[in-house]
Amino acid sequence: MPPLRTLLAVAVALALLALAPSASSAPTEAAADAVLPLLVTRGGAPAAALLTQDARSGTHYAQAGAGISFVDHFRAGSITKTFMATVVLQLAAEHRLSLSDTVEQHLPGLVRGAGNDGRALTLRALLTHTSGLYDFTADTGGMVPLSPRQAVRLALTHSPADRGRFVYSNTNYVLLGLIVQQVTGRSYAAEAERRLIAPLRLTGTSFPGSLTTLPFPHGRAYTSGGRDVTELDPRVAGAAGELVTTLADLDRFYAALLGGELLPPRRLREMLDTRAAHGSYGMGLFPVKLPCGTTVWGHNGIISGSYVRTAATVDGRRVLTYRVNTTAVADPGLEPRLLTAEFCPAPGRTAGFRAKIPVQHTRSSEEQGCGGRRRHRRRHSGTMSGAPNRAASAVRSSGCRWDSRSASTRFS
Q: Is the pTM of this model over 0.90?
């Protein structure tokens, strides 16, 4: 007779099999899953993945293409800004700073020159991208490692745009990183770890500093031209875009943030207030209104070799994060299509089956090397690359700027 331990193991295995969905009995797949393979076939990405989290029905994972997985660590670009804005708003809630403080009060003498004046710039203006400060990555292409002060000094060689007008600039959040350090005596990375990463148990999330390698496990990262850029100095982005994370951690973070776990109600309302940026941007978050009338909140992130987008309902009860392992999606219409499929299910169709433990639905594609895949370099007009342009479609995908001569990219 088999030992008791063996019998128990068999019983548990049979129970799990009984709970697992079968191909014949599972409800219709999530609508967003049907769009995901298009990021590979039409979007030019080697591979793509998404993870959705729903407070009622659990989580759901899908992927398309080879060389990507649920557990991968990847660079998240300007999704870092949501973390930074949350830290600043927590400090405001603790009365350690005020959003009406000027940059000069915390960093005296730093922001001066070429018409720039820190005495006239508030922390609110930095958070909402209405400071007018020049984006230093317009000069570096997001490819040159700089210290925070070097990045600011580079931006200050340029005249500012009109204050009060929404102009997306990575310089704003580099300055916020310096201010966090000035106020707390600790780096912005240490504060984010203490306040956000550790309490939420975001075990796959980190601020790598100058570390050029990704934590294991991870896949490869490619430029849109097919060059491997898996190893990258995060100082090209700093407080504006250095975050490394995972799909599950981003879903957890945005659900907690919008669900009221990280900020008092007043500060969360401020974060979602887009009036300063004329409807385009809150503080580390921006809204997108979908065709069905639903507005989702979140951010995107672009850094060389990685594009990420998180969107969530305003209460954080439903979150989607998707990523590709290349710098940009060639077809900008795919992102709004994906968001619409997830948050605006067709009449008579549910949002899709969601397993309590992630269920992988692999979408195979031609297994071809990145160097052999044809890439499309895109050059996006406009001054911003991290938030939607109000003059464009309400569900337009934002993108990065390309220099066709150097194939460099500005992270958003």
A: no
